[in-house]
Amino acid sequence: MLKKAYETLTSLNLGLWLMAGVMLTLAAGSFSKAGMASGLNDMPLLFWLQRAPLSFSWWLWLCVIFIAILSLNAFFCSIEALRKKGRSIAPHLMHAGFLLVVVAHLLSSYGGFKQQLQMVEGGSIGFPDGEQLLVERISAEFGQMGMMSAYRAELKLNGKVQGVQPNRPLFHKGYGIYLKDVALDPRPVALFEVHREPGALAALLGALLFTAGNLMLLVERKGR
Amino acid sequence: MKWLLISSALLYLASFRRPIFLVALGAGLAYLGSRGLSLGRLPLIGPQDTLAFFSSSIGLMALPFIYSRGVSSGRFFTWGCGLLAGLFALMALPFPTLNMPLPPILDIFWFELHVALAFFAYALFGLAALLGALFLRKGGRQLLDLQYRAALVGYSFFSMSMVSGGIWGYYAWGTYWLWTPKELWTSILWIFYSLYLHLRLKGPGWDRGFAWLGILGFLVTLFTYLGVSMLLKSSHSF
Questions:
Q1: A219 to each of B152, B164, B207, how far by Cα in Å?
Q2: Confidence band for B238, pLDDT divided at 50, 70 and 90
Q3: A63 and A127 share a domain?
Q4: Least CB-CB distance to B179: which of A41, A149, A178?
């Protein structure tokens, strides 16, 4: 019986059905206005799942269950394939990359953090260990049509001044400080977001592994 | 320079022969080049620029296929590619051009890479659908092999687009993932082609299903690109 369960778990058919299941639940979620508008991006996923009513979150619960079984399916499928000699490792590097990305999401779903802060020049952000980040200067540049073309804030941390601007956050002790918006009138004020994304490194490694496997697969299939 | 885009669209629609297709592609690329030079960046924001970019991506990605020996009915396939590229060039025409500089949040290499790779992938998924339709009409294993190649290369571009999008998101928003309809449909599209590529392992008995799946994939692609932007609220909307 255990052997049969293992064979089912490693089967291609199960993988195909699970992929179909993940697609259907994600599609249902994309049309769920309640699901999208209920703070899903404002807190770690596991906290949201614990708090959101099931009528909002059913599709995500189903999706998480399908992805969990799909991850086991991919893992055991690769183990089985690698036991046999002469098989290409490219698809299994891609599986490993996918599994790392799932782990990354799991880490961020539990340990992620996000908070918005509106700060004026001279204001400060306190870290949990007591360190202070001082907002020294807020500035902006405007284009010909009066649109804001660039903006920047200078932050002082441990006596060192560092600039923060869109796409150039400041990273400190696992936190990222992002400048989201600024206004100069009646006095300079900036909107910051502080993020912690514990899964980011695993996601990057997973992506690199997946890409390496993908490129290997392309080379192997060339001319076939 | 809009005449270049109009010429490209009309030539694509009449591209029963490969030289006409090449001239249409040249006109489309010249239009994009002129837009790029005047803007000082890749023309990748707003419906007109993205539709024109998509049209030229189809033309560019189609080149290896229209010169492939595997396509026995070359003229019909070349015209099919031209029709696809021409339709998207025509769709671009009514929209106004956005001549503003890139908003600061989009002004990063990873954004341009993310969008360009996504359109190359969409184009290849479109070509895979055409090859699937040709297989269902005429048969021939080579067409199905070409469809597989188009989808595999498209999937690779799309995966790299998702990776570059994640890196951009991390620098721009502090996270590589947001729960928005566009991200969900991007994942659906990626999983769809993962399923498609896995289905090949089932063997020749699934050939017709495989061809149909290649066609269905392009419908999912179109919904991901156009449907989500028009029907659902998302950070990726036009």
A1: 11, 21, 24
A2: very low
A3: no
A4: A41
- The continuous run of DSSP H or E covering A114 comes out as strand A113-120
Alpha-carbon torsion (B34, B38, B41, B42), positive or negative:
negative
The residue range of the domain holding A29 is: 2-87
Q: Which value does ipTM take for this structure? A: 0.91
Give how many domains chain A has, as a whole number.
2
In Å, how far is B14's CA from the nearest CA of chain A?
31
In chain B, where are the structural domains located? 1-101, 108-238
Using an 8 Å CB-CB cutoff, list chain A residues near B191: 19, 22-23, 26
Residues A142-164 have pLDDT tens digits of 877 777 888 999 999 888 999 99
What's the pTM?
0.93
Contact of A215 with B156, CB cutoff 8 Å: yes
Q: Is B228 on the interface with A (CB under 8 A)?
A: yes
* Cβ within 8 Å, pair B232-A12: no
Chain A nearest-CA residue for B228 = A30
Chain A residue closest to B195 (CA)?
Answer: A16
Quick check: helix, strand or coil at residue A138? strand
In a domain? residue A224: no
